[in-house]
Write a structure and sequence with these properties.
about 525 residues; alpha/beta; Arylsulfatase, C-terminal domain; eleven-stranded mixed beta sheet; four-stranded antiparallel beta sheet; about 20% strand
């Protein structure tokens, strides 16, 4: 059978005897770090450092090897996760910034922006926290929002999040010792997202030597708020936690502690980075040590989350997921070539080649997901919303006019849509896994598109298509478009079917080849 007519192969897993807790709706805790590449964990092949806690998570659950982000950059990738739509349909398709257009405000001697954030999510389309909150879940989000600027129609307080702490704006997250973080707590009586000024930080400059005296480290502050929220959760009261941690994104800076010192002088040749003030990336003389230590710090944080779930008696009924929002970056002094030395994938962040969109993805659900399993089922972020609804037994939504039909969300509004398919059968081995005809990506900044169907992958750059067979060319080196014009035409037709024009995020569509 020709591979183009064969759907993605289903993964056969052993059926499990379900514990009593399986009759309950599970808690869902989703940890998504920032710009971690596929090979940046030791359970995915990293050799320069080790990630024992995340490796343990993989040993207790399922490690996915063909998981894909929604987009090769932050805001649109998160939008695909939140909306259940691919980047040809979802409203947010790029890192459109609003801080550029606002007035400024002073924090000590530092000048910052009065309004910060990105393009808002479409208010008419339901997003994940809204759906889960309507279903009775407690919702907490800690880290990056990137789904609407301050004061817009789409901030956590307006989109179903009960508790938020972190960065509304992903540009603000370039500083690990920022002037402020954002907070919203429904429990504490907040009526809107507010800024919490970091008083020690603002006594020192945002860039240069004086920056070294700042002590309030955002990654630790966000993690501690997330742990405090997690400790409040009780068995029998389901929760959705979305921990969008900023590590290991640039800038490559962190506290002077034992985690960093363990790598000093060890990852040679070391890399020096002089900094980029407009981008808010401070300089560092030890980019390799900083990067390794940041992932090590993240691994320790995952270990603390796992420990609290055990202590609170929540681990058995919690779906715990760890992943990254897109491929590795080379900003702020980062050196993906050094750390991903095996060169398995081509491309980085901002590319629709495999390196920009294929990501680590680990799922643990005791008694439901087989421990120590590895799965090659391809899926993308927009599949997670229907998967979470499937896990939580969300079949219909009166408030948002949607229903689950054969593992896919269907909107009652004909102008709305969901593109994802639940992958719950793949995770549990129970039921038949529906398959995508293809997966789709687009990104306007680099003017790139991508389509995967079976093992075939079409990458389009500025309207020019290239065709690859991932079965024997995972690095996407051999363009087969001249040999297989039939495939090229078919995949270009998929692009024209999937893409809807967007005035803010234009891309160049490839022309349909002539002939049959």
């Amino acid at each position: 059978m020709d591979i183009i007519s064969r759907p993605f192969s289903a993964v056969l897993l052993p059926l499990l005897v379900l514990p009593a807790s399986a009759r309950q709706r599970p808690n869902i805790l989703y940890i998504m770090c920032d710009d971690m590449g596929y090979g940046d964990l030791s359970c995915y092949g990293q050799q320069h450092f080790h990630t024992p806690n995340i490796d343990r998570l993989a040993a207790q659950g399922m490690r996915m090897t063909s998981a894909y982000a929604g987009s090769p950059v932050s805001a649109p990738s998160r939008a695909c996760f939140m909306t259940g739509q691919h980047s040809g349909h979802t409203h947010v398709r790029g890192n459109r910034e609003y801080w550029r257009y606002g007035q400024t405000v002073s924090y000590g001697a530092n000048t910052d922006f009065a309004v910060v954030g990105q393009e808002p999510y479409d208010q008419a389309h339901a997003i994940l926290p809204e759906i889960m909150k309507e279903a009775g879940y407690r919702t907490g989000m800690f880290g990056k929002w990137a789904g609407g600027y301050e004061g817009s129609v789409s901030t956590p307080d307006k989109r179903g999040v009960d508790e938020f702490y972190g960065y509304i704006c992903q540009f603000q997250a370039h500083l690990y010792f920022p002037n402020f973080l954002n907070r919203f707590s429904r429990q504490a009586g907040d009526t809107a997202v507010v800024r919490e000024v970091l008083e020690q930080n603002i006594q020192h400059a945002m860039f240069g030597e004086d920056y070294n005296h700042r002590r309030q480290y955002s990654a630790d502050l966000i993690h501690q708020r997330a742990l405090a929220w997690l400790r409040q959760q009780e068995a029998g009261k389901p929760f959705l936690g979305i921990f969008t941690y900023t590590l290991p994104h640039a800038e490559l800076r962190q506290p002077e502690d034992s985690i960093l010192q363990a790598f000093r002088g060890k990852l040679l040749p070391e890399r020096t980075y002089r900094g980029d003030n407009p981008s808010r990336y401070n300089p560092t003389p030890e980019a390799h040590a900083q990067f390794a230590a940041m992932i090590t710090r993240l691994d320790a944080q995952v270990g603390e989350i796992m420990q609290i779930l055990e202590e609170r008696g929540l681990a058995e009924n919690t779906v715990l997921i760890f992943t990254s929002d897109n491929g590795p970056h080379e900003e702020g002094g980062a050196d993906p070539e050094y750390f991903n030395h095996d060169g398995k994938f081509r491309g980085l962040k901002r590319s629709t080649h495999e390196g920009g969109i294929r990501i680590p993805f680990i799922v643990r659900w005791p008694g439901r997901v087989p421990a120590g399993s590895v799965c090659d089922q391809p899926f993308a972020f927009y599949d997670l919303l229907p998967t979470f609804c499937d896990m939580a037994h969300v079949k219909t939504s009166k408030a948002y006019g949607l229903r689950m039909k054969k593992g896919q969300l269907v909107a009652s509004n004909p102008s709305d849509c969901f593109d994802g398919i639940s992958i719950l059968p793949t995770l549990t081995g129970k039921g038949r896994q529906r398959q995508h005809d293809h997966l789709y990506w687009e990104f306007h900044e680099t003017d790139m598109l991508g389509v995967r169907r079976g093992d075939w992958k079409l990458v389009v750059k500025r309207g020019k298509p290239s065709l690859y067979n991932l079965a024997d060319d995972l690095h996407e080196d051999n363009d087969l478009s001249a040999q297989r014009p039939d495939l090229v035409r078919m995949l270009i037709e998929k692009i024209h079917e999937d893409h809807t024009d967007h005035p803010l995020f234009p891309v160049t569509l490839p022309e349909l080849p002539s002939g049959n």
